[in-house]
Amino acid sequence: MAEPMNEFQLDFARHERIGLDEAIFCAGKTAGQIAAIMDASRPALGGLLLTRLDGDKFDALTPEHQALLDYDPLSRTAILGIPRAPRARPAVAVVMAGTSDLPMGREACRTLLFNGQPHEVFTDVGVAGLWRLMDRIEEIRRAPVVIVVAGMDAALVSVMGGLVRGAVIALPTSVGYGVAAGGATALNAALASCAPGVPAVNIDNGYGAACAALRIMNAIEAAAGTRAGFAAQ
Fold first, then answer.
1. What is the pLDDT of residues 52-93, one digit of tens each?
2. Taking the domains of the chain in order of start, what are their residue ranges?
3. What three-state secondary structure class fits 167?
4. Phi, psi dihedrals of residue 71, rounded to the nearest 5°
5. CA-to-CA distance for 66 and 61, rounded, in angstroms?
6. Segment (H or E) for 93
7. Does CATH place domain 92-220 in 3.20.20.60?
């Protein structure tokens, strides 16, 4: 039996409705379904972000479809077409506790890139060597939004929540031994943080953390426009 290729509906109005572009979660989809989605989106969207596209599935795409994608195997993301032009905005800080957190942090970075959001990356600044964080803290403090990517005990989340004025978004990762429990300990630590006002996204959800940051940046931009409008009256 031929594989059904049209069991999807793309959300072409998502950006107009919520300020975030359509993205395709590739886990659970076949290469044929992904190719069909790519073909359907090209006439209507200037670009498309694909997440959780593992190497085997990318290799299963036709060479023609592979050539259309900017593929990053570390984050398992791909960009079809052209990302949004960089916006004249302050940069979001993506702060990673360790090198092992790079795949998830990179997913957040690629999502920000696709949406035209400037960002700065700070890697390997976990609390096991707190001096590494303190060497960069003044740079991080300039960011209106900070995504904190951390596994194990996710202690960096609470530390960062007590050091910066901007919004802090916890991105717990599945990095860690034994009782780290695939990121459950990091998630619980972020949810139980004594630092006030620190929300958390799901384990390894770099895409979700970036979308939360984008919503905040969109709100900041809208508020600035409203204030400018009032001042001009």
1. 999 999 999 999 999 999 999 999 999 998 888 898 899 999
2. 14-81, 92-220
3. strand
4. -105, 135
5. 6
6. strand 92-96
7. no
